[in-house]
Amino acid sequence: MDVYLPIANLAVNLLVIVGLGVLTGVLSGMFGVGGGFLTTPLLIFYGVPPTVAAASAASQVTGASVSGVIAHSRRGGVDYQMGGVMVVGGILGTGLGALLFNLFTALGQIDTLINILYVVLLGGIGAVMARDAWAELKAQRTGVALPARKRRHHPLVASLPLRWRFYRSGLYISPLAPLLLGVLTGILTMLMGIGGGFVLIPAMLYILGMSANVVVGTSLFQILFTTVATTLMHSVTTKAVDIVLAALLLLGSVTGAQLGARLALKIPAERLRLALAALVLLVALRMAIGLTYRPEALFTVAPL
């Protein structure tokens, strides 16, 4: 069954798009990430223009984050003060991201930029995740426990002025650190259509030094408002949000997330992380190949 995507100007198979939503939803439920970092590449592989894929995936992440924020809020797992600072930064970042998006669109390089960002970020983060997961599996097999990690913010964070107390996170740091982190996440969300969780969560743990029990909930809180701002910004500036595509993805991801959550209970956490790292690296490799191979048919645009 084909359905027409008005903004992408493309006819797609409805079941395939919903299936992609189910797949990213399953991954979201299994690994605790928003899934936006996989939705955009998969849509690009299917033939959806990168600009439309990035803009539409952000709106899907918005819907998927709502239930997560509610669940974490009920158990006290959201630092609203920290999240509020990062939301302000995220909104500022979407504005900067919109300027960059329009600049590279005018230069005709926005599709290339999106692909390069995915290759660099997915490749780097996938390698780190694979290293940590492999170390944990090796420690389990040998019986030698890994040294405990100390929860401490980065020295650069400690050097920033104007410190605040973030009681829920157990921190006494400058609000400039989470503000700048929010700005970076907003820029990436605008350019790549990601929720930012796979960048934000490690940064909150290892740079800000936040307590692990509030990291996921606070991340989802920031992602929720940042992706709303991103969707609105795309609608006003780039006009690349395809509401039909976003609705089909959301339909699939809501169902898939429930399945993924059930599967996560049956698989050890270390194997889950190793599987996610392998998947991330495969996507990065596929996008890198797409940037380098010569297409069969070459086209040029010449002035009349």
TrEMBL record:
It is found in: Cell membrane; Membrane. The keyword Transferase does not apply. InterPro entries: TM_pro_TauE-like (IPR002781), TSUP/Inactive_protease-like (IPR051598). Keywords: Cell membrane, Membrane, Transmembrane, Transmembrane helix. It holds the Pfam family TauE. Coiled coil: none annotated. Signal peptide: none annotated. The chain crosses the membrane at residues 12-38, 44-71, 83-104, 116-134, 179-207, 214-237, 243-265, 272-293. Belongs to the 4-toluene sulfonate uptake permease (TSUP) (TC 2.A.102) family. This is Probable membrane transporter protein. It comes from Novosphingobium aquae.
